[in-house]
Structures are given as C-alpha cells and as structure tokens.
TrEMBL record:
It comes from the Bacteria. PROSITE patterns: STAS. Pfam families: STAS_2. This is Anti-anti-sigma regulatory factor. The lineage of its organism: Bacteria, Bacillati, Actinomycetota, Actinomycetes, Streptosporangiales. Keywords: Membrane, Transmembrane, Transmembrane helix. It comes from Nonomuraea soli. The chain crosses the membrane at residues 21-47. Signal peptide: none annotated. InterPro entries: MlaB-like_STAS, STAS_dom, STAS_dom_sf. Residues 11-105 form the STAS domain. The keyword Acetylation does not apply.
Length: 131
C-alpha cells in the first residue's frame, strides 16, 4: 500500500491502494479552487481497469457545487469504464446520485463484491436485433 499526501487550496488529499481499490481521502474544503487540481488525482485513479474508487469525505468541511460536480463526473466515468465509485460519509447529505457507505472498509468490501460479480458474469453474444 503506497500512501501519497498533498495539500492545496485548503484541501488535503491522501491516496492509497487496497485490494485493487483506489482510496482517496479528503479533508478541508472541496470547492472550485481545489476541485480543478483534484481532477488530476481522480484521473490517475480512474485510469485503472476497472476503476474501483473510494472517496472518503468524512473530514471535508464544505463541498460546493464544483466539488459535487467533480465527484459526479468521476462517478460517471468510473461506471462508463466498467468500474464504480463509492463516497464514504458519516451523513449522506444531499442526494448527489453517489452510493454512500459509512466506512472505508465497507466501501472497499462493496467494490470488491461488485467487481467479482461483474467479472464472474457469463459473457453473452448479442442477439439479432439487439445491436
């Protein structure tokens, strides 16, 4: 497990891997200024195949519209790439369409279970008229 730490614009970021899951832990304020730079952190996590990402927001004081938009965009990208993103939060807050778990451990377990289900599903050929 490799831990990386960074801080800018009032936001601290730690990234690490656990069981093929990228974990991004945030603390401080996730707003327009920090969201722009944080995009590079998400890009690295979303480059994995499949992208399985946990974003721990329990120590985030404020998430503005730009921060919520970044999380939503990362979630859409992960899903479109065959993966998933789960937000860790003590309180789910406003419905932003993200799956929320109370702990990192619960989020990692859910992603591992999801990935095993997807990887073990039988592949079927498209039928005539389904394409």
């Amino acid at each position: 497990m490799r831990l990386r730490k960074a801080a800018w614009c009032g936001l601290s970021v730690e990234t690490r891997m656990r069981d093929h899951v990228s974990i991004i832990s945030l603390s401080g304020a996730l707003h327009a200024s920090s969201a722009t730079t944080l995009g590079a952190v998400f890009a690295a996590a979303l480059a994995r195949v499949p992208p399985l990402v946990v974003v721990d927001t329990r120590a985030v004081d404020v998430i503005d519209a730009d921060g919520r938009a970044l999380l939503a965009a990362a979630h859409r990208h992960a899903c479109a790439s065959g993966g998933h993103l789960i937000k860790v939060a003590a309180d789910p807050g406003p419905d932003d369409g993200l799956e929320v778990r109370p702990t990192i451990q619960a989020a990692v377990a859910a992603l591992i279970a999801m990935s095993r289900t997807v990887l073990s599903a039988p592949m079927t050929a498209p039928t005539a008229g389904s394409v």
